[in-house]
Write a structure and sequence with these properties.
The chain has one domain: Glycosidases (TIM Barrel, Alpha-Beta Barrel). Helix content is 38%, strand content 12%. Helix 6 runs parallel beside helix 8, helix 8 crosses helix 11 and helix 12 packs parallel to helix 13. The structure holds 6-O-phosphono-beta-D-glucopyranose. 6-O-phosphono-beta-D-glucopyranose binds next to loops.
Length: 470
């Protein structure tokens, strides 16, 4: 049976301002936390020394190349493009009373270009960056005042782009705060769980408050949350491993629970009590949290295993630690490849929340080879994406309401965890290496035509892989 995707399925790709735009200080832009992470979010932030090389300062220079890039995305038939607004282009320090008009004008031009090409903008308000000034002078999300600064920024862009942007996301991978608290919250690395969860609480309240503002300012828009989702399988069928898998999944399900159901789940309250974490939560906060998102979005790259046995805890893979699953292969960066895990995840989220779902990141980071004839035959990427999309189709057949799919990095960009160009995700190659050499020329890979066909056939050209006999 062929996979059936809904007729209005939002096919596309996803990027983020700090990983593609470059122009890090152009037209009044302020410095963001990302500008202080030259080696990626896996590594502690550093000083910005004058003249020191930072790949993201130029990235792929989307800031100046976007008309060409949007034309290429339109050539693949994109219905949507997910990108983010850099908060520091709009409010360079974060605490100004008035926005920076040049920054607002840039996104006006960008969204106009997308719409002209039939591409709906899907916009993340905060993707792994915040004004560095707010970190230095206010303590980032550790300070309750940051909620109001974020609300001012969000309200400004809702009002400005209300006729252009109908799809919004609040915080990218909001659960990343548990792994990189500087990246997500502007807190010093190694901050205590008490400090981290209080800052997360401020962010959850901010998210709910801007959901409310979006509903008020753009009544016909949809706004969702965004979580890095990673299913955990018990490493064995020992009941302790099953409970450990549940415990690990609740670390990120917690964010969905709050943002979809509007209150803190009881299992989290127990965890806070056991860890002596006492959060300042006002009655107004509890009220605000009740404004839930319209849809749930997530990134999915891999699954992991969970074991209650401390001896089995050796981990591989970056950002999110993993226990090796003997049935799965892994990418060159140790991320375990598990297409069936996506179907499992979609069903689990649908059963739990009954809200529409959106896969806003999925893809394979790999080293690409340019052949002598100039082609890039990225069959490994095609296989990865095909197999995941087949499983998304299976989930739709199971009854899951899936709004769309935006593959990560439809054009090569600077990776988030390790800030390198060598880890390429794109259908479009960009001539730039880890040292910043290259012409920035764009070149279609084999996967470009493949994705074009997938979209044109609304998933009809996907090929179901053979089952491995199990
Ligand atoms: C997600 C992020 O974690 O994964 C993206 O939202 C990131 O910003 C993507 O780029 C892939 O990770 P990486 O480290 O390979 O770029």
């Amino acid at each position: 049976m062929k996979t059936q995707f809904p007729n209005d399925f939002l096919w596309g790709g996803a990027v983020a301002a700090n990983q593609v735009e470059g122009a890090y200080n152009a037209d009044g832009k302020g410095l963001s936390t990302s500008d202080f992470q030259p080696h990626g979010l896996m590594y502690p932030p550093g000083e910005r020394k004058p003249g020191e090389f930072n790949l993201k300062d130029v990235a792929i220079d989307f800031y100046h190349h976007y008309p060409q890039d949007i034309a290429l995305f339109a050539g693949m038939g994109f219905k949507t493009l997910r990108t983010s607004i850099a908060w520091t282009r709009i409010y360079p320090n974060g605490d100004e009373q008035q926005p920076n008009e040049a920054g607002l004008a840039f996104y006006d031009a960008l969204f106009d270009e997308m719409l002209k090409n039939g591409i709906q903008p899907l916009i993340t308000l905060s993707h792994y960056e915040m004004p560095y000034h707010l970190v230095q002078h206010y303590g980032g999300w550790g300070n309750r005042q940051t909620i109001a600064f974020f609300e001012r920024y969000a309200t400004t862009v809702f009002e400005r782009y209300q006729h252009k942007v109908k799809w919004w996301l609040t915080f990218n991978e909001i659960n990343c705060a548990l792994f990189s608290c500087f990246t997500a919250l502007g807190l010093p690395p190694g901050s205590s769980p008490q400090v981290v969860y209080q800052a997360i609480h401020h962010q959850l309240v901010a998210s709910a408050r801007v959901v409310k503002a979006c509903h008020r300012i753009i009544p016909d828009a949809k706004i969702g949350n965004m979580v890095a989702a990673m299913p955990y399988y018990p490493l064995t069928c020992h009941p302790d491993d099953v409970l450990e898998a549940q415990r690990k999944e609740r670390e990120w399900l917690f964010f969905f629970d709050v943002q979809a159901r509007g209150e803190y789940p009881s299992y989290m309250q127990r965890r806070f009590d056991e860890q002596h974490i006492l959060l300042q939560i006002s009655a107004q906060d509890r009220d605000d949290l009740q404004e839930t998102v319209d849809f749930l979005s997530f990134s999915y790259y891999m699954s992991s295993c969970a074991s209650a046995d401390p001896q089995k805890q050796q981990a591989t893979g970056n950002i999110l630690n993993m226990i090796h699953n003997p049935y799965l292969s892994a990418s060159d960066w140790g991320w375990q490849i598990d297409p069936a895990g996506l179907r499992h995840l979609l069903n689990m989220l649908w059963d739990r929340y009954r809200k529409p779902l959106f896969i806003v990141e999925n893809g394979l980071g790999a080293k690409d080879q340019i052949e002598e004839d100039g082609t890039i035959r990225d069959d490994y990427r095609i296989a990865y994406l095909n197999d995941h999309l087949v499983q998304a189709g299976e989930a739709i057949a199971d009854g899951v309401q899936l709004l769309g799919y935006t593959s990560w990095g439809p054009i090569d960009l600077v990776s988030a965890s390790t800030a390198e160009m060598s880890k390429r995700y794109g259908f479009i190659h960009v001539d730039r290496d880890d040292e910043g050499n290259g012409t920035l020329e764009r070149r279609r890979k084999k996967s470009f035509t493949w994705y074009q066909q997938v979209i044109a056939s609304n998933g009809g050209s996907l090929v179901k892989p053979e089952l491995d006999g199990r």
